Amino acid sequence: MSYFQLMEGAVIGLYVLSSLFSFFLSSRNVEKQINRIYSVFALLMACEVFLQNLNYYEVSAEKFVFYDKLVNSCIILASFCFILFISQITGYKPKKIMAGLIFAAGFVFSINLLLPGGIVYKNVLLGSDKTILWGEIINTKIYETTNWFFAAMTYTIMVFVFVVKALISQKKRGESQNFKLIMIASSIGIGGIFVENIMLLLQIADLMILDDFCFLAFVLIISHRNFTDVFEASKIKSSLIESQQGNKVLVDSMNDAVMLWDKNGIIQFVNKKFCELMEYDYNDVIEKPAENFIIDNELKPANEILRNIEKARQVEITLKNKSGGLKDFLVGISPRIDGNGEIIGSINVMTDISERNSAEKSLRKTLMNFQSIFESSPFPISINITKNGVMVEVNPSFLKFFNIGKEHVINHTIQSFAGENKEEAIDIFFKKGKLENFITTFEIGGVKKTMLLNSNKIDFNDETCTLTVFQDITELEETKKKIEDANLYMQYLIDSISAVIISVDINLQVKFFNNASLQYQNLDANNSNYFFDKFFGLKFIQEELTNSISKNDVYKQTKMVVDSEGSADFYEISIYPLSKVESKGYVIMLENITEKKKMEEMMIQTEKLMSISGLAAGMAHEINNPLGTIVQGCHNIVRRTSKDLSKNLVLADELGINFDVLNSYFEKRQIYEIISSMKNAALRASDIIQNMLQFSRKSESKKQEYSISKLIDEVLDLANSEYDLKKKYDFKSITVVKEIAEDLPEIRITVTEIQQVLYNIIRNAAQAIKQENSIEKKPTLILRAFQEGDYLVIEIEDNGPGIPDKIKNKIFEPFFTTKEVGEGTGLGLSVSFMIIKNNHNGILNVDSAKNCGTVFQIKLPVEQ
Amino acid sequence: MKILLLDDDKQLRLNLSAFLEDEGYTVVNAASAEEALQMINRDKYKVAIVDINLPGIDGEEFINIASEKTPDTRYLIHTGIYDYKLSPGMKSLGLNENDLIYKPVIDMNFMVEKVKSIFENK
Questions:
Q1: ipTM of the complex model
Q2: Nearest to A628 among B18, B53, B104 (CB)
């Protein structure tokens, strides 16, 4: 055995092994076709190498040609297998090319058989022995090739071109995993044959074994590929078992039902979800025809669904579950293909759409409801296209409310039927498409209606529309307005009350208060709403409030409050528990009645004086005559006893009376003094009558515009000129201070009366000052005049002893006097009071404190 | 120098006529207008002092009637009505504010002056 033979034997062995290996694989269903073809191919190649080997040692030319013919036949058959093999691996199966190639192979094969020297040899001469590689000695052959040899070469090139094209097409399809491998293998294999034959043809060298080695490389590479495939196939198989279990878990846990059926529609597998939805056990379903569960539908016959599984698709089917309920499914049907690419059934992933379907149903129902609401709504509803305001639908209430036919609304804008009422609002709500409680007015049949509009965007007939609900709130608005009015009216009413009105809840939190309360408000209360914090100034009613709360009863009382300066204020306090209204609490009413009380006193005073005045008028007439008689009688007595009257002397002579003696008797007996006192008494009575008459004297006609400052000057002049004979007062010793405001208006008064009043008061003041014997105090009289609101105020202030509290209330009483009898009539101030109050609609006040002097205040209205 | 004094108050007549007589005048008293009218018929008076409030015919009426009979007589109204004002009728007869004397006449010289001026103006 030579090295060469050993090598050739190894090559043959490897071919055979490769063939067997592939055959074995094909029997294991791994790339069955490919491996079968390859198995034949490798076997043919083994034969070829064996026959060629025989040829190397052959000495008979005839036998050499015979063997070579067989070799070439093997190669052609192998090439045919190779073509099929490449076609299978790459999936490149163009029929025409294949046919061409088979034809070419058949042609070359036939020629090879028919020609006596095969397709290669025309003439063969055996030469001498030749030593080749490894010192092997073989026979050299001298030959001449046939012309057909080129046809064989062309065929080889065709095969090579086919392989290249097949690989390129495979690569174009993106399946490049075998590309390099096959390319290299084919290039080496075919390239080896090609190179050896070229060298043979050109008689450069006879390598003989090159093609074998080249094809061996091809075989090894392909075997390696097939081996790897087997290895991977076993790996795939084990992972398939794993994944089948994993898949089951996965499939079972899927939210969709999964059902597998074979191509005859027999159920092979269902997942848990399927069982759950259909209420069947796994075994109830398996191996049963799927047809049993599918509800036939004219549009989708169950048969069609079950059979038509070549292509993946989606269908909706309805299944009946165990309890007879119907379930809608959206089924994704995908074909299941076995290793040979044959469809063996389908896998069906089924999504339960029953709920979706029922949702659709309820949507339809909702739409129906909407329709009925729209139609029967008592509120007018319109739907218009948002962008242009054109009406597309209105309900019957709308037509009724606007009193318009539907044909005048649809396809019109609202402006066209709202008449003159081109409110901006219309634009707003149609263009914007969304309104919330928008209030506007429509004029419908000459009546203004207040409307509340609510609108929103909706999709209507695939267009963005505005749905507007109209609500006639005219009456509501009117009522609201009336209530607001009433509230406002109440507020004004309560605010116009001068009394403090505050309402509090049971925790004394302030709920309401009127304007009059503001003066008692504590601005530093830090937002506290507690009654005594907020109205700190009303702390003095704490006791009353506590009292009322404890008794839960109406409380009403007048309270005197003395402030730190000692001046007293009177308050009328009323507390009403709010027990009958929902929000319980108290209403506190409080009124400062100090002024009112003063006024009341003044009224009483006036009343008193008025009654006197009525009496005085009657009395005056009746008393004047007797008074006149007394006075005149006294006058007559004095005259008729006087020496001065000649008649007296004549008569005395006649009667023999000594007139001088009579006179001295009268004097001694104080007759004249008595008569004088009688006269004085009568005169005083007359004075009183005169004063009393002032109470009722109407002085209207004498009123004139007069300057108060001028009047004050006149009175002061008068007072200065009157010097009391009895030295009761000396006006000149009193310091008079005048504080008269400038630009005082002239006011309408009865000059003599006001003069009289001023004079009365000034004289009283002067007399009061005189009573004060203190040396330290300089007797002072201050006269002020100023304007205060609608009043012109005259104040006469002295620094005399003041008016004692106990007589303060009496000074305006008629016939009240502190002066000695005969000195004053007691009517001065009461007359003054009447003049100011009755004749001038003014106010005469006095303010006095012991040892602090007295202030008289005359208030005269500026305009009468 | 005759004066007619018409007043229903006897005391007043007594005192007033006494005073006027002391002044040298002749005073004839009448207690009522009716009485005074009779006196006018009998005699002529330069001055008549007339009270207004009288029983029966009142002072103003009396002046109206009397002035027709004796147009030369001058009248002084002497009244206790403190707010008495001359009526237009009185004014048309030529009476004015100076002819008004309110009671009580405290100083009778005041009345005498009025009477005297009438006589002197003659």
A1: 0.86
A2: B104
